Amino acid sequence: MIENGNINVESRYDEIKRFILDDYKNDPTILGIDGLLDVLLVLHDECSNATLRGEKSIKTYLENVKTFVSRIKQCRLNRNDFEIIKTIGQGAFGEVVAVKMKNTERIFAMKIMNKMEILNRADIVSFREERDVLVLGDPQWITKLYYAFQDNENLYLLMEYYYGGDLLTLLSTYDDKFSEDMTRFYVAEIILAVDSLHRLGYIHRDIK
Prior knowledge:
With 208 residues, the chain is of the alpha+beta class. It is 45% helix and 18% strand. It folds into 3 domains: 9-75, no CATH class; 79-160, Phosphorylase Kinase, domain 1 (2-Layer Sandwich); 167-199.
């Protein structure tokens, strides 16, 4: 990090670009471009409130960013960019569905979480932690996160889709009984996956 205020302008500008474009990949507390755009859009929506938009300075701000905000909203990823194939699972805050990105052959697992449910349960911290684990986790053990976005009702996480299903599905194909070698293999993999979480400073509280 640059701390010397005497460093030339070009170096400081390069530091800002690196901070926004690269540092956020290793530090979830840094917003990055998507985070900054989220802040801008939220600010725009809040300022558009009938109580505020009559203020002269706010009215000027809304006029200045109107075209930019409109273009960003048109270009950003949204739910309509995907076709739902099937439901994979159901949870406390929503569901996980297999989706296909339109005009491509790319398949993802989309986790859809209702904002109101999360707020009512005061569990926004859990969502942030889940997102951070997906971003920072070792992809050998933790599902890869490709995209995250939101709309007025829901939060969305676009993750890698695993065609092989989960361990329970695999177990059912063996009449609910693995061989000793298979059991040893999958237990070892689970231990390594949980250890990778511990290395990030997280504890899994729902292993079963």
